[in-house]
Amino acid sequence: NLTLNTLFVGKPVIHLPTCHSTNTYARNLAAKERVVEGTVILTSEQTAGRGQMGNRWESEPYQNMTLSIVLCPTFLKISEQFHLNIAISLGIYNFLNQYLDDELKIKWPNDILYKHYKLGGILIENVIKGQYIEHAIIGIGLNINQGGFQTPKASSLKLLTGQHYSLEELIPKLLKSIEETYLRLRQYQVNDLKNEYLGCLFRCNKKYTFKSDVLFEGKIVGIDEYGRLLVEGETQEVKAYNFKEIAFIY
Ligand code: BTN
Question: Domain check: are 138 and 164 in the same one?
C-alpha cells in the first residue's frame, strides 16, 4: 500500500505480484481500453524485462523498482520525443540525488549512472497519432536493494550506501519527482529542463575518448533539438550523433 502525494501519477497503481514486462503489460492495456494518464503498472517480479536496443532487463525479484507509467504528452510532436526523455531522466535523477552525491550522472540518452556503475535505465515507448504522441509508456528499472550483479558495470543504491530501503517509501517519492519534471515539461519549461539535464550529464564538457567509426578524442558540448549528442572533435568541429552512432570508451 503506497501513500502518494502526487496529483495524478500513480492514480491508480496496478500492482502485479509477477509480470512478464510492465511495459508490455501497459502497452497491451492501453491498446485495449482507455487508460487514465498517470496509471502505474508495478511488479515485484519481472520475468521478461526489456531494455533498450532489444536487450533484456534483469532484476532480482522484490529488491528493485520495475514499473511503467502511462503518460499522455499529446502536446509533444514526434520530433520532440526527446523532451520527454529529458523530463523523465531528470525526475529520476532528482529522486536519486536525495540519497547520493554528485557522482550521480545521467548518461546520454537516459542511463542513470553512479561513477561508472549503472543504477537504472529507462525504456520509453511512444504511441504516435498523426504528428503527435498519443501516449507514452515510461518503463523504469532502478536497482535499489539488490545485493550483487553478474556484471561489474551495475550497482544498486544499497551497494553504494550500505543501507536497505523500503520500496513502499521510495516509490511514492520517485513518482512525485517524475510528476514534477513532467509538469514542468507540460508548462513548456523545456529549455530549463534541458539545461538541468546537461548539468548532470556524464562526461560533459571535458575531453574523453569516443568511438564512432574510429576512436577519437572529443568533448560533449550539448544535445541538439532532436536529442542528438553534440560532440566537438579533434579539429573543433561539432558533430551530432544518434544513439547507435557513438559509444563511450571507458
Ligand atoms: C535500459 O536498457 O537501460 C532500460 C531498462 C528499462 C527496464 C524497465 S523495468 C520496467 C519496465 N518494463 C520493462 O520491460 N522494461 C522497463
Answer: yes
For residue range 20-74, list pLDDT tens digits in order.
999 999 999 999 999 999 999 999 999 999 999 999 999 999 999 999 999 999 9
**DSSP 8-state assignment for residue 228:** P
Residue 171 and residue 2 in contact, taking contact as beta carbons nearer than 8 Å: yes
Residues 69-96: tens digit of each pLDDT? 999 999 999 999 999 999 999 999 999 9
Protein residue with its CA nearest to atom 2 in ligand 1? 51
Show the domain range for 159.
13-199
Q: What CATH number does residue 244 fall under? A: 2.30.30.100
| 3 lies in some domain | no
Rg (CA), the chain: 18
Q: What is the pTM of this model?
A: 0.96
| Centroid of ligand 1 to alpha carbon of 54 (angstroms) | 10
Is the complex ipTM more than 0.95? yes
Ligand 1 pocket, mutate which of 19, 20, 50, 119 (most atoms under 8 A from CB): 50
Question: What is the per-residue DSSP string for 113-130?
Answer: EETTEEEEEEEEEEEEET
Closest residue CA from atom 9 of ligand 1: 141
Identify which of 13, 57, 85 to mutate to test ligand 1's pocket (most ligand atoms within 8 A of the CB): 57
